[in-house]
Design goal:
191 residues, mainly alpha
Amino acid sequence: MADEVRVGWPKRIVRLLDEHPVLLITIVASVFVAFQWWWIANARFLGSLDVDEAGSIATSLRFHRALAESPAALVRAVSGSGSGPLVPLLSLPFIAAFGRSATSPMFVQAFLVMLSAIGATGAVNRLVGKRAAVVAGCCTLTMPALVVSSRTYQYSNGVAAAICLAIWALLASDRGASRGLCWPSVRPAGR
């Protein structure tokens, strides 16, 4: 019985890799996000913020204050913003969860890198196969540029995540033939 458990454990991992690459990358990326959040909370010094980061963080905090006032105030704040509102708006749940500090909005960056890795995994799974999808997801998570950008507050992570997820959704729609619920991990890859 003990031999079956020892032999069965690696086979279960391989089966998970073969059957659910998006789930596997989501789990791996969650560990990545937890480490990046720890790094931001403990090692990122506020004095190291550049002007763009400070302005963008201030925008997200301004959006949070406007949302606390009323939804209409948030709409006015977003429409009066001089820059793209996507990343500051995505920062609002993190500010609500972790408090109004300069580091709370930065937590969204690691989450956006995780979404990029999930999108890349899903797209490669549709195009090439499951094992290549895992490699693509791991490569996306460990790219030095994405690791560094997950520790700074910038808009490029939001753009990257949106592009990766949009490509995955487009591939999962089978050239628009599938007009139902487009959740790619629910349907088989068609292989």
